[in-house]
Amino acid sequence: MRALVNSTMLAFVRQAREARRDPGPFYVLPMLPALLMTVVFIALFERIATLERFGDTAYAEFLVPGVVALVALLGAGATSSSLAADLRGGFFQRLRLLRAPIGSQLSGRLLFEAVRLLPGTAVVLAVGLAFGATAHNGLAGILVVVALVTLLGVAFTGIFYAVAIRTHDPQTPFTLQPLGLPLSFLSTALVPLAVMPEWARTAAQFNPVTVVVDGSRQAMLGQLWSAELGWSVVVLAVWTVLGVLLAWAALSRDIARS
Amino acid sequence: MTAMDSRADRTPAPADVDRYEHEAVPDPAIEATDLVKRYDDVVAVDGVSLRVPRATIFAYLGRNGSGKTSTVRMLTTLSVPSAGTARVAGHDIADAARVRAHIGVTMQEAALDPAMTATEHLRLVAGLSGLRSSAAEVLAGELLDTFGLADAANRRIGTFSGGMQRRLDIATALIGQPPVLFLDEPTTGLDPQSRRALWAHIRTLREQGTTVFLTTQYLEEADELADRVAIIDRGAIIAEDTPEALKARLGRTRVVFDHDGGAERVRAVLAGRDVEADGHGRSVVALDADPSNGSEGAQVLALLEQVRGAGIGIEALSVSAPSLEDVYLRVTGSAITTGQDQITDPEGQP
Questions:
Q1: Interface of B with A in 91-120 (CB under 8 A)
Q2: CA separation (Å) from A108 to A131, A156, B9?
Q3: Which of A173, B166, B174, B340 has the fewest CB atoms within 10 Å, i.e. is most exposed?
Q4: Which pTM was predicted?
Q5: How far apart are CA B343 and CA B154, in angstroms?
Q6: ipTM score here?
């Protein structure tokens, strides 16, 4: 266990160093779509809140705890690039021969995925608050939202790792980025279920992002510790486990075929 | 993960490995019996058996695609044999963690992250090998010094020349002072000066007691470095011995002479012998020196007398001792590009 922790930290530090040298893809890009949507959607669609079906909340209040999830959904997986590069360039073979558990190459990167989404999440929330969002539960609610977004990033990254391992292609983060669009738009991140067309409402009800966003919205606007938050944690835990299993299966297959 | 992979990548507790790390490596350091590797319908390695004595350099010579790398991947536990067994540093290759604790490996492509500096790279690998941070830092400095990379310690690896990357790759493989070192084509793509510098490092390692398993497609490299040479062709070892013994047994003395008789006339005079024109007006005779026919020198003189006796004047003469190139040609029938002593396959692909 100690070997796993130590090697996870070494993999984390390596990834953090790479991000420090090239901060754009790791820290700046993830926040841009969510930031843009926060500003533009509040300006353009503010009157959507006047619809009877929308409810009593102002659009900025409704939008920000949801749109912040796009930091994870449209910015996750950057660390899959270095994983693919290690596999393609042969460095991964050397890592396999070392004493450290090879799984630490995934766990260290996953940990960094969570950490690197923090600045973007904080910036989007700050801008959202400046544009009219409110945090009824104060800092505690904001911290819960931040935690949910970073965990969503970790959960979503599993599929990136599986594809990176399968293809050995460092462009994987860009290839898979469009995946985040249907997950975002067909959820309650931007508009409530009540104003969606029937087909979109059906899709959103089965979208795990809806559960996470509902938990996030409750933490900022309703009860801090809500049933929605509990379901969010369960969904994220299951999603993370499935993502890691998918990546591990891809890695096992890659090793077996070598 | 399959049971087979679990076995291959299992990592024992550090203390468990340390107990084995300081044991003396038995002789032979590497021993393989009937190793087979199949990839779907392709048999990459077809029943390879070999023994590598401790503290020697063993050259595994063959063209691209002959099965060299597949053999190395099995011996280093990176792939599981389809059949056969092997022991490395006294441990069955099925016990991957034990074998890995005793070996250093460089593969054909330098296994480096171009975004890291040399120091960062060595410290990372040392850390993942179980060394504490302070020990990793000291070791990284020592290795950079040893391999002449101290001035480039804080440069990104991506800016290194091919020779520097190779040296760093080998330095990385030496973390943990492994008693057995696998070098898969370590000098491919290097300029002659860098190759010779690497050869010097490899010889030093042998003198320090390291067993070196070296794959190469350079005949000169095998001849210069190796205590024993195995030639692999189409997945099977077709000759193995010391370079001297192979040359004595399978090599042929080459007699090259300028003459005024024309290539066809020389060939007619020396009918029954292996005579070629070299394209520069010279004839090349490959001479099987048979000890029962007298000394090699006497046989060369007799051959020249035979030519002169036919009225052909000899203007210049050179005699070269048997080389591994002769041996390789003889056992595989393949052509060799003499410019770099690099083996080419019959279709001319290097």
A1: 97, 100-101, 103, 105, 107, 109-116, 120
A2: 36, 16, 18
A3: B340
A4: 0.82
A5: 38
A6: 0.88
